[in-house]
Structures are given as structure tokens and as C-alpha cells.
Design brief:
259 residues; mainly alpha; 11 helices; 0% strand
Length: 259
């Protein structure tokens, strides 16, 4: 009997040792696992969100916009290259590839424009909130142009023209009028034409002169007035003289306005 008890005891002891499984806080070698923090229970979406936020926080709004605009510039160069190929090459399988490149680039340009617009719109809204006194003061001036300078969500698309320093002024104005009007409607265009013209003028030199001229006007700016101001800034001296001579040859009176 004693022998039987010893065997039973030994068996139980052996079974106990053999079935020992480390709990959550210890390993088989006796080392202890560190406690699980609350962060460890986050799902992947939370982790990705924190990583994205760390990237965004490290950059200013201006840096983000600058990077987006640089990316947009590269896309426009790619789009132009594809458009040139489509213009000069006969229909081939390579042309199908060029068309795909053109279409995908156009789609990506629209996406970049939306991202830039969202960021700039949010910045304008924040600026309006942080400068309430300035907004209130401008409303007391009864200056229609000053009122139009308050934050406005412009509806910009990739198809709308941009005026560079070497762009054709008349062609640019014609496209602005027709494309923007088609997108936002005639009434809205007449109301905000100066804002759209300023935004689509990407040449810093021309934009600065244009906005200075606009700020000096106390009457509401019509599209005709915007065109006149823009052409006076954008046309070189020789071209302006040629236009004046052509106008004089029509026999118009001196008191008639020059458009």
C-alpha cells in the first residue's frame, strides 16, 4: 500500500509538472511578460490615423499646399507630353497608351485640385474665425469689393485655365468667362468674377498688380471692368499702343470708354 501511495503521489506530481502552462504574465523560462498597455488594444485604423497625424503635424499648411501644387505641376507636364503625342502621332497601339496616360493624369489632376481646394477653404474659414474684428470692420466700409473679399468657397476645376507669365491674355480671359460661367452659372460669375480671375492668375507678378487694382475700386467689379484692368496689366506697351491706334481708327469719340 505504501508503494502504491508513492506511485500515485509521484504520478500526480509528474502530471502536475508536465501540464504546467505559463500564464499570460510569465514565460516558460520564468521571465515575466510586460503588462499590455491600452495602446496595444487599438485597432489598425487608430494606428494609421495616428501615423498620418504625425506626418501632418510636422508640416505647415503652406508646406502641404506647396507640395500639392508641385505635384500638380508635374502632372500638368505629364498631361502636356501625352497631349503632344496624341496630336502628332497616327492612331496606333502606342496612342492608346498615350490616351490612357492622358485620361489618368486628368483624373489625378482633378483629385489634387480638390485636395488643394479643401485645404485652402479650411484655412480661410479658420482665418475668418480668428479675425472677427477685421471682418466686422470691412462690413462697415460699405465697399462692395471689400465685402466680396470675405471668405468664399470657389469652385475650381482642372479644366479651368491658369494664367502664367507667358500666357495669351485674351485667350485666357475668353476661357475664364466661358468655362467658369458654364460651371457656376452666369449670375454667380458676374458676382464673383474678380475672385475667380485673381485665383486663376497664377503668375505672382500679375496677380499682385491685379489685386492692387481691384482693392482700389469702390464700385462692384463687372466682368468688363475686370477684363479692362487685366489687359492693361498683361499686355505689353507696344501691344497697348497698337490697340489704341486701332481704336482711334474706328472714329470713336474721346469720351467713350476703352475696353
Amino acid at each position: 500500500d505504501d508503494s502504491s501511495d508513492d506511485v500515485s503521489s509521484s504520478s500526480e506530481s509528474s502530471h502536475s509538472e508536465g501540464s504546467s502552462v505559463p500564464d499570460d504574465s510569465s514565460n516558460a523560462d520564468g521571465s515575466v511578460n510586460p503588462p499590455i498597455s491600452e495602446d496595444a488594444s487599438m485597432d489598425l485604423d487608430d494606428i494609421d490615423m495616428r501615423q498620418d497625424e504625425s506626418v501632418i503635424i510636422s508640416k505647415t499648411n503652406e508646406e502641404l499646399i506647396s507640395e500639392l501644387k508641385e505635384h500638380k505641376r508635374r502632372l500638368i507636364v505629364r498631361k502636356l507630353a501625352a497631349a503632344r503625342q496624341l496630336a502628332v502621332m497616327a492612331p496606333t497601339s502606342q496612342q492608346e497608351n498615350n490616351q490612357r496616360i492622358y485620361d489618368s493624369t486628368q483624373k489625378e489632376l482633378k483629385d489634387v485640385d480638390k485636395r488643394i481646394h479643401r485645404l485652402e477653404e479650411a484655412m480661410e474659414e479658420l482665418k475668418a474665425l480668428t479675425q472677427p474684428q477685421a471682418t466686422k470692420k470691412s462690413s462697415k466700409t460699405n465697399n462692395p469689393h471689400e465685402l466680396s473679399k470675405q471668405p468664399l468657397s470657389l469652385k475650381i476645376t482642372a479644366d479651368m485655365p491658369r494664367f502664367e507669365s507667358n500666357s495669351d491674355p485674351r485667350e485666357f480671359l475668353d476661357k475664364v468667362k466661358h468655362l467658369v460661367t458654364a460651371y457656376i452659372g452666369r449670375e454667380s460669375f458676374e458676382k464673383y468674377c474678380d475672385r475667380y480671375l485673381s485665383y486663376l492668375t497664377v503668375s505672382e507678378f500679375h496677380r499682385q498688380l491685379l489685386e492692387e487694382e481691384f482693392s482700389q475700386r469702390t464700385e462692384p467689379l463687372t466682368w468688363d471692368a475686370c477684363e479692362t484692368i487685366f489687359l492693361r496689366i498683361a499686355l505689353n506697351e507696344q501691344e497697348r499702343i497698337a490697340q489704341v491706334k486701332a481704336l482711334l481708327e474706328t472714329g470713336r469719340k474721346d469720351n467713350e470708354s476703352f475696353r
